[in-house]
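Budget justification aside, the reviewers requested a transparent look at the raw inputs and outputs of the sequence design task funded under Objective 1. We therefore reproduce one unedited record. The lines immediately below are the structure tokens for a 745-residue chain.
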């Protein structure tokens, strides 16, 4: 029999996949564990019990899922926004914002099913919200109870020569050939329509002459299926009616009206609201006097008031519309608002004018707005945008970097887009952490770290879940995530089944470790409109400005009814620091024995801590006054749902002269758990005392710092150790040491 003294001084690798329990040869095995539940792995190597949650309020519609979105104005002034079914409510400083004694709220256009794909970008008191089926909206704050949400007014918006669908049916005289007569049932043709294409499905013809208001001749490029009349709405004209010149009466200033005169008729009454691009400027049409004359507002100054030659001016419609779709991703980059990907233009990016976020008038000047499409061998629908040393774009098919080339800014005439990786992304908002982008792969079950590699002179995106693939099993994908920088670097992730998981991430110290946090109960079940457990997460600066605060939307069954509760992880209001119960309320004041106001916990068994002592458990009444009674009286009380924190080691490995100890029987005559500021843990089933002999009677027990000693004398081949904290007290474990005997057989 051999005797060894193994140790585990760090758990920075978090939970290991069961598929890795045979990999005792890799370095991270010594820093990993089998189970890490409701414990957080710290960069120092220790693990600490996660903070409990503080109850704030219930959502407005208990049967409808919600989404939490952070709104950060400054380090000391930040909000959490509750987006629900057609409404927004607001939270700050650990509470809900009220107006006249009721929750302050505003109307929103977004329905329940829209919320998962809602994206946003914020600058000071303004947030732009984007969604594929809604115009870009602008949320503006002027006070705690003064918020407005309206469609953003882009002047000018990005524009495109959209297809124009004239009224009436269209009848071709032949299916192929040149000089074919096309007859419209209504007089729609103008002289400016020469050289425009008639399009119907896959059929195309180029107009050569205008015979009358109802007839044209055209050369057929792609055959028409028959000479039958084509119904209205099934044929259209492409391009602009720019066969003649377009002469502006003035070229400036912005906001002034100018008269546009055509040498060949091309304007129609339906053109009001469209945009004419000429002489590197833009004019928005506000009235049409005739086919050759229209009045418009100058929205981008023209370089000249000389006539624009035929073929050099265009008549365009707003790019973003209900028919063509709206952007799905947004960010700020190099002083511009950048938007990406619509249904009609899935690979296109639009950048506003420099310093003017609502001006998308594309031009050729360095400060003008830009528009460009990514060239790729397959359609890459945009998913997200983030600024880094370059502009990074995540698409369904891969990840791209966009620059101005040679580290120059992006301008309308200087754009360079390169494919970097080809993993593809889903709609989950990525997180920027230092120089890296953490994004969810297209399947939703892998998290990747997009960062520049000097070795490859390009971006790489290693899989951060490869050692813990069990965290996201099939059918349980990443739904939301947000990053908390302080006090410890943690990526909080909501899984689609309601499980809250987290990844400790500190690349500079090689810390990448996953752990699970079943908030709302260990049994996660389907409920009306959503799931039991955590549905949404948002991180904002704490009101004291020195750390960040994690907010959650949690679904629980309370008194027989599913409810959605808004809570935050509370790291300051507990007697021993952070809370150690969930969905909690706290009391601080004169000594008291009765604590009411627990309606949000009716029918639940709760833990009670008073003045640092454990008062045991009570059940909150299902009827009558929602209160609990304790004795003796306490002046600082925490009441909330209990939760269990579990740390279980991997199979012990004791390397010796004969090689690995795997498969050999072992016993542990001494197990030593080094702890700091800890109370009442269980080690391998043995309860450690909460109160020690050095604690004065009548005073709260003190937290323990030192070594807990225990033993595990039975022989087995695994020699695992389990530490559990199921009392409402802190627990921080620094290392595991001891003696292990290894049998020779």
């Amino acid at each position: 029999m051999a005797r060894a003294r193994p140790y585990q001084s760090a758990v920075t690798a978090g939970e290991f996949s069961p598929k890795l329990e045979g990999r005792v040869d890799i370095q991270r095995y010594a820093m990993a564990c089998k189970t890490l539940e409701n414990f957080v792995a710290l960069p120092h190597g220790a693990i600490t019990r996660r903070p409990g949650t503080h109850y704030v309020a219930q959502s407005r519609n208990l049967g409808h899922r919600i989404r939490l979105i952070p709104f950060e104005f400054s380090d000391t002034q930040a909000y959490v926004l509750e987006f629900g079914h057609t409404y927004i409510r607001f939270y700050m400083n650990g509470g809900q914002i009220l107006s006249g004694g009721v929750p302050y709220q505003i109307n929103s256009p977004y329905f329940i099913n829209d919320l998962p794909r809602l994206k946003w970008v914020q600058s000071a008191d303004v947030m732009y919200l984007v969604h594929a089926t809604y115009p870009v909206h602008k949320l503006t704050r002027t006070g705690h109870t003064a918020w407005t949400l309206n469609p953003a007014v882009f002047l000018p918006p990005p524009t495109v020569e959209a297809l124009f669908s004239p009224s009436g049916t269209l009848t071709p005289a032949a299916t192929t050939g040149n000089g074919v007569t096309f007859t419209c049932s209504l007089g729609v043709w103008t002289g400016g329509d020469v050289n425009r294409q008639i399009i119907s499905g896959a059929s195309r013809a180029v107009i050569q002459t205008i015979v009358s208001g109802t007839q044209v001749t055209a050369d057929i490029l792609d055959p028409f299926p028959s000479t039958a009349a084509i119904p209205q709405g099934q044929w259209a004209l492409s391009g602009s009616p720019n066969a003649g010149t377009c002469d502006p009466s003035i070229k400036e200033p912005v906001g002034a009206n100018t008269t546009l005169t055509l040498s060949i008729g091309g304007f129609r009454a339906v053109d009001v609201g469209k945009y004419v691009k000429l002489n590197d400027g833009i004019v928005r049409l506000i009235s049409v006097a005739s086919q050759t004359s229209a009045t418009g507002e100058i929205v981008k100054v023209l370089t000249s008031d000389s006539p624009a030659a035929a073929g050099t001016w265009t008549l365009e419609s707003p790019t973003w519309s209900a028919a063509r779709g709206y952007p799905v991703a947004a960010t700020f980059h190099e002083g511009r608002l950048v938007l990406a990907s619509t249904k009609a233009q899935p690979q296109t990016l639009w950048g506003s004018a420099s310093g003017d976020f609502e001006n998308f008038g594309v031009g050729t000047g360095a400060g003008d707005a830009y528009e460009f499409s990514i060239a790729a061998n397959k359609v890459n629908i945009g998913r997200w945008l983030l600024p880094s040393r370059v502009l990074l774009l995540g698409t369904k098919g891969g990840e791209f970097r966009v620059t101005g080339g040679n580290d120059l800014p992006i301008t309308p005439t200087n754009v360079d887009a390169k494919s970097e990786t080809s993993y593809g992304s889903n709609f989950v908002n990525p997180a920027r952490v230092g120089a890296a982008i953490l994004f969810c792969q297209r399947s939703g079950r892998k998290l990747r770290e997009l960062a520049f590699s000097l070795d490859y002179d390009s971006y790489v995106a290693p899989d951060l879940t490869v050692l813990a693939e069990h965290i996201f099993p099939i059918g349980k994908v990443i739904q939301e995530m947000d990053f908390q920088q302080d006090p410890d670097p943690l990526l909080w992730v909501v899984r689609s089944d309601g499980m809250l998981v987290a990844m400790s991430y500190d690349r500079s110290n090689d810390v990448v470790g996953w752990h699970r946090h079943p908030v709302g109960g260990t049994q996660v079940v389907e409920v009306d409109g959503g799931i039991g457990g955590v549905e949404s997460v948002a991180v904002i600066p704490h009101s004291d400005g020195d750390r960040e605060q994690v907010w959650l939307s949690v679904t629980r069954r309370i008194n027989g009814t599913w409810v959605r509760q808004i809570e935050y992880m509370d790291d300051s209001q507990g007697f021993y620091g952070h809370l150690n119960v969930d969905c909690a309320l706290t009391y601080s004041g004169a000594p008291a024995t009765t604590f009411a106001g627990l309606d949000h916990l009716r029918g639940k068994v709760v833990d009670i801590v008073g003045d640092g002592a454990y008062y045991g458990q009570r059940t909150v009444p299902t009827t009558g006054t929602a209160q609990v009674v304790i004795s003796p009286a306490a002046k600082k009380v925490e009441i909330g749902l209990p939760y269990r924190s579990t740390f279980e080691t991997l199979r012990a490995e004791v390397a010796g002269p004969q090689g690995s100890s795997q498969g050999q029987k072992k016993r542990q005559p001494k197990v030593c758990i080094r702890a700091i500021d800890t109370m009442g843990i269980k080690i391998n089933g043995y309860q450690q005392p909460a109160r020690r002999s050095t604690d004065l009677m009548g005073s709260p027990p003190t937290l323990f710092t030192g070594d807990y000693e225990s033993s595990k004398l039975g022989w087995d081949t695994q020699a695992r150790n389990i530490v559990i904290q199921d009392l409402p007290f802190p627990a921080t474990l620094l290392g595991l040491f001891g003696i292990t005997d290894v049998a020779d057989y």
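Residues 522-530 have pLDDT under 50 and may be disordered. The CA atoms of residues 326 and 349 lie 12 Å apart. Computational costs for records of this kind are itemized in the attached budget.
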